[in-house]
Amino acid sequence: MCGARPTGDTAHRDLYEHLVTEWPDVVALDRPALVEAVGGSEVMAELLSSTYLTCAELVGARHGIDRVARRVFQTRLLSASTELERLLALRPAEDVELDLGYGIHNPLDDLDERIVYHRASLGDRLAADRLRGVVARHARRDGNVDGRPALIATLLGAEMLDGYVEPRCIPGTHRYDVVGQWREAGEEYVAQAALATRERIRDAIVEARASASEREAEEPAPKRASLAGFRKAVAVVPTPPPGAVVVFPALSKSSAGKPDNLRDIKAALGDALGAALPGVPVPDDWDAWEAAAVARWPHMPGVPRAIREAQAGRTHWGSMRLCLVGPAGIGKTAIGRFIAEHSGLPFSRYNADNSTDNSYGGTSIRWNSGHLGTVAAMLAEHMRATGLAQVDEIEKASGHRGTNGGRLHDVLHGLWDDETSSRWACPFSAMTLDLSNVAYLATANSLAGIPSSLRDRMRVLEVSAPGSEHLAALVPQVAAQACREQGLDPAWGVLDGVEWQALRGAWGQGGSIRRLQRLVSTILRARDADPSTPRH
């Protein structure tokens, strides 16, 4: 877990060497001595013997190890791990507490953790979840080991990523790198924190020297007190309205650093700095709000219902994380903008299929391309404490954690956590922002490609394409939109009986909104091509 490779760079060789070293009686086939060595348990002795024979079979293989042999080994290793965990759980609690009190490490516990590590490296997701706890125990227990900094970085990365593991094969082996990903994430965080600390110390020194120089200069004569100054001093600060939140704290020279940084931050945030930004009240009549949304999108009635449930009991719009999953072209993207306009919410849309990094959360002001995050920029532009942030095709986001760019999913892990979003560390302004009142609407064609840890943070809602029963509600809206886009009179979009009959025949049992738009446009073009067709 500190970065060293296992013996022989394989799970079976490493476990073989460990068993032979800790329990040499398994090699000598001295069953009574082995039973005595494990505290008199015949079952435990049989478990160690069978595990040794399983590993020895692969160690002694002369013609290589094929895929079937590896799969058999993984299955046997899972059975051994399950049984070992069960047997260890049966130990009397007082024995375990006594060992912990005197710092005694039971070799059976070490074997259990070693097997968990190897199961995780062979692709076992359940073992990877357990491995996170193993790392935490060793980080607390192993105080003086040489690899302690790497162990602490591994634990830090595991907590930051919430135990998430991306399948990444170690070159030249059949093992996955699990703890290496956690260690890299932890080391990167420590390096960034150290760099930020050095810059703050340097800027503080520069500012202290400048202040000392200013004090050495002749102080200006004190100004005479004035009535206007007195009134300003005793003025009562107005109470922020209900739902108002200070999203962007007041800017200080120490937080901004260089003067150029101060200027760029003020230009990006403007009047939002230090201001209590008002929230957006929820609808007074939720029933009317929901009815209007369903009338516009009759094939997705669950969407306004889910949004209404997420805002239940609130006076102002607040946090929400909803993901719409369904086929392409049915209006998942368009319904987000409609909800925002229908509710008076600021709106931003981000195409995740074009994302190759984590710049959604903003980039450092030290870079030439430094900029605010998408969500923070939306709130600053509209001077509101909340808004609707839409992330389209979230499953198609690319990028890699091993590069400087990172991944969109990593940023969303923090933005979609209540505690982290309320104290969001903005890389552009170097300030702590309150983004906890933002509502998020994600869209996807499938859940494949979305990390399970991210799915746990949102409500997933399956939506389907409109059917024939929705045609009467959708066609007038689609036709009116086509007329607006072509600069035609809205009356030109009213279909007659023959056109309705042709449309129903072509539409059939239903399909995507895009297909319906093409069918309606075809009818309007056909009517326009026939001069004898009367206009409504």
Automatic annotation (TrEMBL):
Q: Which terms does the record give in the GO molecular function aspect?
A: ATP binding; ATP hydrolysis activity; ATP-dependent peptidase activity; serine-type endopeptidase activity
Which domain of life does this protein belong to?
Answer: Bacteria
Q: What Gene3D superfamilies does the record tag this protein with?
A: P-loop containing nucleotide triphosphate hydrolases
- Biological process terms in GO annotation: protein quality control for misfolded or incompletely synthesized proteins
PANTHER family attached to this UniProt entry: LON PROTEASE (PTHR43718), LON PROTEASE HOMOLOG, MITOCHONDRIAL (PTHR43718:SF2)
Residues in coiled coil: none
Q: What is this protein called?
A: ATP-dependent Lon protease-like protein
InterPro entries per the UniProt record, alphabetical? ATPase_AAA_core (IPR003959), Lon_Prtase (IPR027065), P-loop_NTPase (IPR027417)
Q: Report the Pfam families cross-referenced here.
A: AAA (PF00004)
- Annotated ATPase AAA-type core domain residues: 322-460
